[in-house]
């Protein structure tokens, strides 16, 4: 990989991260948007609309109709432009429940499901930032965030287990360091172990499936 490509990829991810920070700051100060978000995602109306909309438009980017609103009904146009809110609320839920995005050079993506329908939603960089959605099969339920849990504000079933295990890991690291094991050695061992158990992800296939 050339230095120029690495630089471009880094710039794109920085752009996405800055956009997410701006969005979060905007939500903090914009009470109206917060209310709109709660209104949209307090029930299943938006995700049910998305389930029907993606039958005709299985892959779309929110900005592709921005300059051609007459190509959609007024309701569809409004809901397409709320895709950023959907991404934000999924991202927020994921962070609170130890679910992590698929991150590639082009963007950041989550797999979500509503009943038997699966989606990949994401934020992508390029000439302009945009939010995308692709309807997909639910091939492995463990890879998908259940949107019913988001609506119900229900934690994932394994959250408490994960928190207990992480607390035990923290205690073990403190004990090892107190017994004289150098922090650098602990860090190297932990990182090597993580590398050895890290699954291979077919990110290229995911990005290809989202090409709109």
Mean pLDDT: 83
Broad structural category: alpha+beta
Quantity of strands, as a count? 6
Radius of gyration: 20 Å
Total tally of structural domains:
2
What is the straight-line distance between the termini?
A: 25 Å
Helix and strand layout, with pairings?
Layout: H1 3-29, H2 31-41, H3 45-56, E1 59-61, H4 74-80, H5 83-96, E2 102-103, E3 107-114, E4 117-124, E5 130-136, E6 145-146, H6 147-151, H7 159-178, H8 183-197, H9 203-209
Parallel strand pairs: 3-6
Antiparallel strand pairs: 1-5, 2-3, 3-4, 4-5
Description:
The chain has two domains: 3-154 and 201-209, no CATH class; 160-192, no CATH class. The model has no long low-confidence stretch (mean pLDDT 83). 56% of the residues lie in helices and 14% in strands. It has nine helices and six strands. The chain has helices at 3-29, 31-41, 45-56, 74-80, 83-96, 147-151, 159-178, 183-197, 203-209; strands at residues 59-61, 102-103, 107-114, 117-124, 130-136, 145-146. Strands 1, 2, 3, 4, 5 and 6 form a six-stranded mixed β-sheet that branches. The longest helix has 27 residues, at 3-29. With 212 residues, the chain is an alpha+beta fold.
């Amino acid at each position: 990989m050339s230095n120029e490509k690495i630089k471009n990829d880094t710039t794109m991810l920085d752009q996405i991260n800055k956009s997410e920070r701006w969005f979060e700051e905007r939500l903090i100060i914009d009470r109206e948007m917060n209310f709109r978000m709660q209104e949209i995602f307090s029930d299943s109306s938006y995700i049910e609309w998305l389930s029907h909309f993606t039958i005709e438009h299985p892959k779309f980017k929110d900005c592709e109709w921005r300059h051609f609103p007459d190509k959609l009904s007024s309701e569809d146009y409004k809901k397409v432009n709320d895709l950023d809110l959907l991404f934000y609320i999924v991202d927020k839920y994921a962070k609170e429940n130890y679910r992590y995005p698929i991150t590639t050079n082009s963007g950041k993506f989550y797999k979500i499901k509503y009943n038997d329908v699966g989606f990949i939603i994401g934020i992508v960089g390029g000439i302009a930032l945009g939010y995308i959605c692709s309807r997909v099969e639910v091939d492995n339920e463990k890879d998908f965030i259940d949107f019913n849990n988001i609506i119900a504000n229900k934690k994932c079933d394994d959250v408490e287990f994960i928190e207990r295990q992480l607390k035990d890991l923290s205690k073990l690291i403190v004990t090892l360091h107190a017994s004289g094991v150098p922090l650098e050695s602990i860090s190297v061992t932990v990182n090597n172990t993580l590398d050895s158990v890290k699954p291979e992800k077919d990110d290229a296939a995911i990005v290809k499936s989202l090409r709109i």
